[in-house]
Amino acid sequence: MDMLIVAFTTTAIALIVNIVIATYGIFTDRSLLKKVISLLIFSDTLSVFAILIGFRIPKVVSSPSPPIHLDIPGTVKDIEEFLTRTVDPIPQAFIITAIVINLAIFSFLAGLLLQYYKHFGSLDVHVLEEEEVVDEVY
Amino acid sequence: MSIEKIRRSPLTALALATITLALSIVIVSRGLGILPPKDLRELGRTIAVNCFNPWNRTLTSFSLNAVSAIIWDYRGIDTVFETAVLFAGIAGLSTLFKNVKGLTLGIGGGSTLIVRKSVKLVVLLTTIASISIAIHGHLTPGGGFQGGSVLAVITSLIVVAYSIETIHRLGISTKDIMRIRYTALLTIIFIAVIPTLYGLTTGIHAYFLQNMPKDDSPISMPTNFFNTPLGGSIFFLNLAEYIAVAASLSLVVLLFSMRSKELGLED
What we know:
heterodimer, A: Helix Hairpins, 74% helix, B: two-stranded antiparallel ribbon, 11 helices
């Protein structure tokens, strides 16, 4: 049981490190495409984190199971048995909603990047600033 | 100091490293409570008890899958809006490419014979698997969105193995896919208002997106298909979502695999 808690804590810390690295990428990278990829890693890590919060270590059975009845419950006892082993279904339901919305947003962002590239010929964030500097010099 | 230097300064990295360290210490010292918990949280417990519970007919949804029960029954309106967001996102994407000239017949021969033949097999299997994932969304892991995403993989497989011209030869255009999306979205709205319409015509009180009978409303969607639980409207909504998501994702794949001339990006 202790090993499970250690594994859980390690996963949580690894996810936090992942979030921070993604944040660093969003802040510092010059390429817009890489910024979007960082944002994608950021949101997906958050999704995994939310699902991790729904995890539990059941008291009676050795390992938890997905929140799905394996068979049609015939008696009230079947439902009670289901409660002893199932994980929390709510984070999973919210994350599937979040994934759909992420998908809509990121496909739109990818389209925007294509248009940006068509307009400026580069995906660099500073391409506009540099053009202004060149105008001032000449 | 320019913005560029501030962005690149070690201070940013240092601040982020401090955040990591602080959050890690909080988690290790159990500042966020005991993780992972041993018991279900109260709300999760209520839903796990009621997702398939013939002894509590006003709160159950007759769905063996608790996640599907939340998505289409307990938080159904959330999902309707989520589908609307997906619709709006893809509509925004199509607006960005409003000059799309459509696919032109080119030479594209695709990959070698081995790849093409194996893709043919895989496409058949993938279609069956995706339909199974979608229609069993209330019984097993899966649902409309998951099935739809699997089906959209077929579009990318065909584009990669056979070339995008094959889609053109099959007679599928982006406009057709848009029409399928509209129809699927309207179907979702229609299924959501069926109980309300029925209530209006018969004079019985009913709710939007109602699935099973409530205390003040006896209207119910079908609970069983012969011996198989149907989960009321969950099955039908999953099916409509399956088509909507498959069409949306296929549209994205098609738009991003078009040549810039076809997209109207080159003058």
